[in-house]
## 1
Amino acid sequence: MSLLENGNLTCQGREAGLFLPEPDTSIDPGQPQRRASPGWQPKSLGQALHDAVEEAKANPDSARQLFDFMTLYRHDDEYVDRVRTNFADLGIELDDVSQ
């Protein structure tokens, strides 16, 4: 029994689940686990994007990180130019970004 419970031996068949340990019922599998600090509230996607843009306007390192994120999987010149144009339209300076 202990070999089945700790996973060293697997069993097959219709009744195999009877030999597995019971799930931890103190955790509700239907609810995501939160690791929130006191006072922290989740943001909407729109608010998070707004905050990221505002931070990028004020902080060149944040602008670089946001640009790197936006161009993480696409490096073709047309796409990168479009991202640069979008950043300029939003008022985000990209002088230090070299991509």
## 2
Amino acid sequence: MSEPHEVHTYDGPVFNGPASHNQFAWNNETVTQNQQINGEVAAGYEALAERVAELLRQLPGAGLAEQDREDAEAAAGEVLDVITRPEPEAGRVRRALATLRGALVPVASGVAAGTTVAAQEWARTAIEGLIV
């Protein structure tokens, strides 16, 4: 005879394995989330870490569409993840920066719908600062 199955009802996300450095906003209209990476920045990448941190601070007020902001946040997080490793691989740093610049290009070029002139200028300046 089989045992009766226990039924679980969850009203939020369920994790069945490791889940670190994740942020979730659940059932709300608008949200601004910030995440601070406290890892030690690898030698030689300090200035880049400051530029990326400043980009993340300015991102919520840059006037970007939600999807553009989310893409830029995810790409910036990848850059920080790579440069806070004990010995970041130069190729991974370049690829992470390319992804971040790529997330900002539609905004800088005005291709992203609803992009303001101020957001375009901000994105151009940010892209120029992300060259290593």
